[in-house]
Sequence to fold (163 residues):
Amino acid sequence: MAAKRVRPAQRRKASGFTQEELATLLGVERTAVVRWESAETEPQPWHRPRLAQALGISGDQLQELLDDITVIQRQTSERINYVLQHPGSADLVAVAYLHEQLRQLDESYDQASSAGLLGPAGHLHGQVELLRGNATNPRVRRALFEVEADSATFMGQLVWDVS
Fold:
């Protein structure tokens, strides 16, 4: 499954940097910036203060940008199947995929019946709960808690509508 951090790249461009220029400023290879933006890796802790300063944001804002991963629909069903079979291997990319699935269900709320959405929403909620219960990475667990809360809210709305 391919993923990308769109917001850090947008922020870099808005700050007037190319990947090469930002890498030079931070004293890293351009490929490091490429890997950060493609969600392959994250900046090391010692690079984060200078990266945040270069982008004109706080450390917390930088973390928010890094946590916002967009899933590119390629080989997602194979990856999510693997993650569901090995729930301890859940990562932020899998969380982003599940969050996107929930967003799509929410978008179809006005077009589909609540009764018709209840099954897929319950299935998704169960997947999120399974992964959250087995997540070993604290950041992944926290992100799964957020998706689980959104999913539970959506499920409550559907149940209310159906009743």
